[in-house]
Amino acid sequence: MRPWFLILISTLIGLTAVAADPQPVVPKAEGPVNIRSDKLVVDQKRSQAIFSGSVRVVQDTLRISCQRLVVTYSGQDESGQESGKIKRMKFSGQVAIEQKSRQGHCDQAVYLHARRSIVCTGDPWVKEGENLIRGERIEYLLDQDQVLVEKPRAVIHLEDVDEKGQRKKP
């Protein structure tokens, strides 16, 4: 999984998404997802694992914390074997996402494996350095490396450069 959240969770599409350069933290690289929480309930009939209380998710450099995480996984495959592949992850309750210098926050985030996307709602924002982008809804399309921001509001700090494109010293 690559930067998301994302999660959490990027290159922004539309508005100043590209100009802003804050990127949602979104998982895209492959590898194990490590999850820790205070409590875990597995509902095999619904093919869900429900993590609650101080949930911490780590994959490579991506870190997501929240109060509750519901992981929906596939049940049996055609041969009757348990596949256990993740179909959907729903993060809720003070969702915080970090990856390297990027930070994000929202009330709820949903990762949909079939769409390879993460949707953040509930006052979502993404920050990198001094740059900040907010919106009603932020969706990161992992395979297209695009971010869709509904009703974006951005604060972008441009570097002060000279006529040669070199950063001016303060």
Fold and architecture overview:
This protein has a single domain, classed as Lipopolysaccharide (LPS) transport protein A like domain (lipopolysaccharide transport protein A fold, Sandwich), CATH 2.60.450.10. The N terminus is likely disordered. The protein contains one helix and twelve strands, in the order αββββββββββββ. The protein is elongated, with a radius of gyration of 18 Å.
Q: Helical content, roughly?
A: under 10%
What Rg, in angstroms, do the CA atoms define? 18 Å
Q: Mind telling me the CATH class?
A: Mainly Beta
| Category from helices, strands and their pairing | mainly beta
CATH H-level homologous superfamily name: Lipopolysaccharide (LPS) transport protein A like domain
> Main β-sheet, in a few words?
12 strands, antiparallel
Q: What count of domains describes the coordinates?
A: 1
Strand content: over 45%
CATH architecture: Sandwich
SS field, number of helical segments: 1
